[in-house]
Design a protein that fits this description.
This protein has about 200 residues and is of the alpha/beta class. Helices cover about 25% and strands about 25% of the residues. The strands form four sheets. It has a five-stranded mixed beta sheet with strand order 8-5-4-1-13. A four-stranded mixed beta sheet has the order 9-10-11-12, covered by helices on one side. Strand 4, helix 2 and strand 5 form a beta-alpha-beta unit. Helix 2 crosses helix 3.
């Protein structure tokens, strides 16, 4: 199966509590990190693929190798193959470090890397996966799945925020725990729900 997520921001202390970007009611980053890991692994198996649309972690140390090793340690605890799309907080040094420490999982690399985005088809739609929201113009069969804006939503039915803080899981008729990646069935329900919502506003 394929899953999608963004903006995990592992180790990001200034996101704890209630901020302008997120509501993360944790006492410390260790609790937040573990919750995301647990909720991720409840849904994802090692045979699955998870597209992470950027901002994996925000953690800086001197020397940087310490933070890179800490991020790698967290990512190795997450089930599945990770397709990593670079976010504004993801350094090239981190991606290089992950690539140098890549390993095989079920005969496939654990990590795959993309600078800008990924396009794939599912059912009757095309999904363009990016970190930043993209305004694609008149392209009714292309949906932009993105992160970056945390608990905000783009006022366009063709854009779906898939980050862990997204408010658009309100279009689901069930609850997903914090940090659980979205399945393609979840995404379809969110796309359909947002379209109905926008049609009502006409």
């Amino acid at each position: 199966m394929r899953f999608i997520t963004a903006d995990t921001h592992f180790f990001h202390e200034s996101l704890l509590g209630k901020t302008d970007f997120a509501i993360r009611p944790y006492a410390n980053v260790e609790q937040m990190n573990q919750d995301i890991i647990d909720h991720w692994n409840e849904r994802v198996e090692d045979k699955d693929t998870v597209y992470h649309l950027g901002d994996i972690a925000l953690y800086f140390t001197h020397p940087a190798i310490k933070s890179n090793e800490a991020v790698l340690s967290v990512l190795k605890q997450l089930n599945g193959h990770l397709v990593l799309i670079k976010g504004n907080h993801d350094s090239r040094e981190l991606f290089k470090f992950l690539d140098q420490n890549n390993y095989l999982l079920n005969d496939k690399p654990k990590f795959e890397f993309h600078d800008v985005g990924v396009l794939f088809k599912y059912d009757h739609r095309q999904y363009y996966l990016t970190h930043y929201p993209m305004m694609l113009g008149i392209a009714p069969q292309i949906i932009n799945l993105h992160g970056h804006i945390h608990h905000y939503a783009v006022p366009a039915k063709e854009n779906i925020n898939v980050g862990v803080d997204t408010p658009e899981t309100a279009y689901l008729d069930y609850h997903l725990p914090f940090g659980a990646p979205l399945s393609l069935a979840d995404i379809e329900q969110m796309v359909d729900g947002k379209k109905v919502d926008f049609d009502k506003r006409r």
